[in-house]
Every structure is written in structure tokens, then in C-alpha cells.
Amino acid sequence: MSFRIESVKFKLGENQIPVRDICTEVDRDYDRLIARSGFELVHRTSYPEEDFFRTFILQELSFRENDFIIFVNQSMSNKIPGKISGLFSNISLQKMGFLELSDGCTGFTRALLVASSLLESPITSRVHIICAEKYSNFYDNLDESVSPIFSDAISATTLASDGGVKVIGSQIVNFFGDSEAISINRDELLREKLHMGGAQVLNWAVREVPNVVQSLLNENNLSVTDVNSWYMHQGSRIVVESLCATLGIDPAGKFDSSQIGNTVSSTIPILVSRNFDSSRNAYLSNGYSMLISFGVGLSIVATLIKIEE
Amino acid sequence: MLTKNEVLEAIAFAIQDPLFNENSNKENTENWDSLGEITILETLARLTERKSDQIHDLYLANSTSELLLKLKEHGLVE
Predict the structure, then answer these.
(1) Residue A198: its chain B contacts at CB < 8 A?
(2) Nearest chain B Cα to A143, which residue?
(3) Please, which residues have CB within 8 angstroms of residue A228's CB and are 6 or more apart in sequence?
(4) Residue A145 CB-half CA count within 13 A
(5) Per the domain annotation, does B78 fall within a domain?
């Protein structure tokens, strides 16, 4: 069973913050940082996250009866009655499927697997994967290991059951023993603070991600040269370029988020949205595409898709 | 296999600290901060043709002697 990517939309936080300004504030060498992180601009929203997300949903999305929504988020604190009921309270459709997925950087690729299965079932013929994070709730400029990296963002990827995109295979590998590497902890004032062990995450990603990708390719009797397009989680320039070096693929264009920032689960949807082929009226190029996401968990989800449109 | 001096020179250049030596550690080296850790990992990866990527706890090294020991244990430095 295959599906179609009907649309991919996204919105970044309305405040564009030059990383150079952050570096000046925290007395950090901009050139030294930018050579590794690659992010020149990050985006944050001043709005409460629920308002930021709801505005995008109301303005950009239209829903039909029997649509299915997968909402990927970790930053919202609303536990009961849950995140979806608040965000969608203005939407009158009652007959829609909903699923909340608490996941970070691997959220989109994980949701894509669920969406693909749903579209094979009689439950729905249209799935919206909404990825939304406001990580700026958990740091300020002085938190220099995260403030020049992350951006607030929401994205919506709508999939329909008619089309030429097919999930060929996927591998999900978890390293929960290293979960503290990206985590929320409380500081001495009991404020929630995002911690990221940059060196630990880099060390882990460059060691483990290529094994997972290679294993997925082997499972499908393919090699890296059979893959037409690579969509890698944009954790930083250095991690993307290191993965390219280990996998033996050309790094040109693989890090493409210098003006975007690390948008967590929206990273891959944003890359996909920028690869719209107007001559085919379709997202992504024909052939094999590898979607590689990794991070919070720590987890890796690599998904191989084939496009024939 | 790399020599100790090749490793020290490469790191000194990468973190822009000409005084970096075998007695350097996170406490006495200003540029060995969170960004410096990443720079050192990437420098070693390039120097070892990415073999150092396979050292599970390399990021935990807090001093040059610990770095060199881990590299030596994996047969990457004399």
C-alpha cells in the first residue's frame, strides 16, 4: 500500500535571533561555534505554546470527517485532559481519529510508520502528522549549549492513501541507558532546564547511526549508492557531516538548516517541504529516500521509502 | 598508528591553544569547554579516519592523559 504526501507546511517562531547576538551576550567565539553547529539563525516564539500551535492549526490546516491526526510533542505540560483536546477545541468535527505521541527528534519518522499503517487500514484515508515543540520554554540565552541550537516550530504533513510513496522498511533502535544526554532537569530554583551533552550525543550518533542505516540497507539488499535522497536530522552541521563521512556519501547540501535551527521533530518535514518538485507536483524525488532521525531517547529511527510518482 | 605528538599538535591547532600539552585538562584549558569537547572528538575522528568514533566513552575524557589512554587502548596511538 502506498500513499501521497498531500502537503507539508510549517511555521517557525516569529522572533529571528542571530546566533552572533547570542554569542556576544555569552562571550562565546561565534566563528568557532558556527563551524561546528552550523546554525546562524534560530527562531523563538513569544506566544504561549498552545496559542502558537493553535494559530497555525486553525490558519493552515483543513480537516475532513474521518481524518486522523497524530500529534507529536514533548514540550507541552498539559497532561489531563491531554494536549489535543485544548488545541482542537475550536474544530467542530467529532469523527476524527487522534493519537498523541510523546517523542522528540525521532517523532516524525516514528509517526510516519504509524500513519503508513493507518492508511493501509479501513480506519482512515488521510493522516495529518503534526510535530510541535517550543523548547525555548526550557532555556535562556545563557544556556549556551542549547540556546544557539534549537528553534521553536510546528509542522504539519498531510498524507493521503492514494499515491506512489511506500515505506520499504524501518529500523528503530533505542539506547535508553543514555537517556540523560538530552533531558529536562530542574535547576536550583526548580525551573525546568533543557540539558544536552553535546559531546556525548555526537559520540553516540556518529558511532551508532551509520550501523542502523547500514543494517536497514542490508535488510533490503541495497547499498548507499542506491539511495537517491538523504534526509538527516539536522542536529548540527558537525553531526550531519560526520555521518556523511562515515556512510561514504557526499555531504554537499545534507546540512541545510543554517537559517532554521534544530526544530526537533519538525526537522525532516521542513527538509521535505523544501524539496517540492513543481514539475511533478510532488514532494521528494523518485527513487529511494532515506529518512534518518536520532536524538531524544536516545533513539534512532531510520526509514527507507520508495517514491514512484 | 599515530604518535602522541601528532595528537597533541592536532588538538592544539583545532582548539586554538598553542599551549595545549600532555598535562592539559578541562580545568586548566580555557577552550576545552562544551564546544571544545566536540572539537576534540571531531579532530580525533578525522585524524584516525573515524576509528575513534567507535570508542564508546571517549567523550568522558577530562584530560589529555585520559584521551591518550583511551586512544592507546584501542590501538590508535603509540
Answers:
(1) 34-35, 37-38
(2) B34
(3) A285, A286, A287, A288, A289
(4) 20
(5) no
Q: Does residue B23 form part of some domain?
A: yes
Whether the CB of A207 is below 8 Å from some CB of chain B: the reply is yes
* 8 Å CB contact of B41 and A145: no
- The whole domain housing B32 covers 4-73
Nearest to A145 among B34, B42, B55 (CB): B34
- Rounded to the nearest angstrom, the minimum Cα separation between A199 and chain B is 5
Partners of B45 on chain A (C-beta within 8 Å) are: 206, 242, 245
Q: What is the pLDDT of residue A95?
A: 87
Give the Cα separation of A211 and A217 in Å (integer).
10
**Percent with pLDDT over 70 in chain A:** 100
SS3 A297: coil
A129-183 pLDDT tens trace: 999 999 999 998 888 889 999 999 999 999 999 889 999 999 999 999 999 989 8
Look at residue B26 and tell me whether its pLDDT is greater than 80: yes
Element (H, E) at A93: none
User: What digits encode the pLDDT tens for the residues B58-69?
Assistant: 999 999 999 999
Evaluate whether the domain defined by A167-307 bears CATH number 3.40.47.10.
Answer: yes
- Domain locations in chain A as residue ranges: 3-163, 167-307
| pLDDT confidence bin for A79, thresholds 50/70/90 | confident
Instruction: Give the ipTM of the model, two decimals please.
Output: 0.84
Residue with the bigger pLDDT between A76 and B24: it is B24
Fold of A3-163: Peroxisomal Thiolase; Chain A, domain 1 (3.40.47)
From B1's Cα to the closest Cα of chain A, the distance in A is: 20
How does strand A276-277 pair with strand A282-283?
A: antiparallel
Q: How far B35 CA lies from chain A's nearest CA (Å)?
A: 7
CA neighbor of B56 nearest in space, from A203, A279, A283, A15: A203
CATH number, domain at B8? 1.10.1200
The pLDDT value given to residue A271 = 96
Q: Does A203 touch chain B (CB under 8 A)?
A: yes
For chain B, how many structural domains are there in total? 1
